[in-house]
C-alpha cells in the first residue's frame, strides 16, 4: 500500500484514540497559559529595553542642552511654544468646531482644527473642543481662533473657552 493511502493515515484503535497519550484539558490550558505568560514576559522585557534606550537618548539631549545653556538662553532662534486652546459650545447644531491659524512672514497657516458632534437635546447640548500642539512661532506672528459658524453659542467662562501657550 502506498504511503499516501488514506487507510494508512487513519488512526488505529478505538474511535477517539489517536494513538498517543491523552492530556487532561486542565493541563492543556495550563500549558497554553504558561506559553502566553512567557511570551508576555518577553514582550514586556523588549518594551522595557526600548524605553530605557529612548530614556538614555533623552537624558543625553537634556544634558547637552543644559551644558549649552539651551537654544534660547543664548538668544538663538525663535521659541518653541506649547499651544493649548478650547472652546465650550452650547449649541444644538449637528457639529461645531474651530480652527487655530497663524499669520506672519507673508503667509497664513492653519495650525490645527477641532470638530465635535453636538447632542440634539438643548439641555445636554454642551461639548468642548480641545486642541494642543507644539509650534515654532516668530516675533510678530498673529494667532487667531476661528469659529466658522457665525451664530455659534459658546461659553466664555475662563475654564470653558481659552487660548494659552507656554514657552518651552
Would you kindly provide a written description of the structure presented here, covering whatever features stand out?
The protein is α+β, with helices and mostly antiparallel strands and 168 residues long. The protein has two domains: 23-75; 80-167, Jelly Rolls (Sandwich). The protein has helices at 6-9, 25-68, 70-73; strands at 80-90, 95-104, 107-117, 126-136, 142-146, 154-155, 162-167. The strands form two sheets. Strands 1, 4, 6 and 7 form a four-stranded antiparallel sheet that branches. A hairpin with a 2-residue loop joins strand 2 and strand 3 (107-117). The radius of gyration is 31 Å and the shape is flat. The model has no long low-confidence stretch (mean pLDDT 80). One of its GO terms (biological process) is positive regulation of isotype switching to IgA isotypes. Keywords: Cytokine, Disulfide bond, Glycoprotein, Membrane, Secreted, Transmembrane, Transmembrane helix. The chain crosses the membrane at residues 29-50.
The level-1 CATH class of the largest domain: Mainly Beta
For the largest beta-sheet, the strand count, sense and barrel status come to: 4 strands, antiparallel
Question: What is the overall pLDDT average?
Answer: 80
Which class do the helix and strand fractions yield?
alpha+beta
Please count the beta strands (DSSP E, at least 2 residues each).
7
Q: What ranges have pLDDT less than 50 throughout 5 or more consecutive residues?
A: none
Classify the oligomer.
single chain
Number of helices: 3
Our measurement of the CA-to-CA distance between the termini, rounded to an integer number of angstroms, reads 80 Å
Count of discrete domains: 2
Q: Radius of gyration from the CA trace?
A: 31 Å
Helix content: 25-40%
Find the CATH topology of the largest domain: Jelly Rolls
- Tell me the fraction of residues in β-strands, as a range: 25-35%
User: Helices and strands, in N-to-C order?
Assistant: HHHEEEEEEE
How does the overall form come out from the CA principal axes?
A: flat
**Which architecture name of the largest domain does CATH use?**
Sandwich
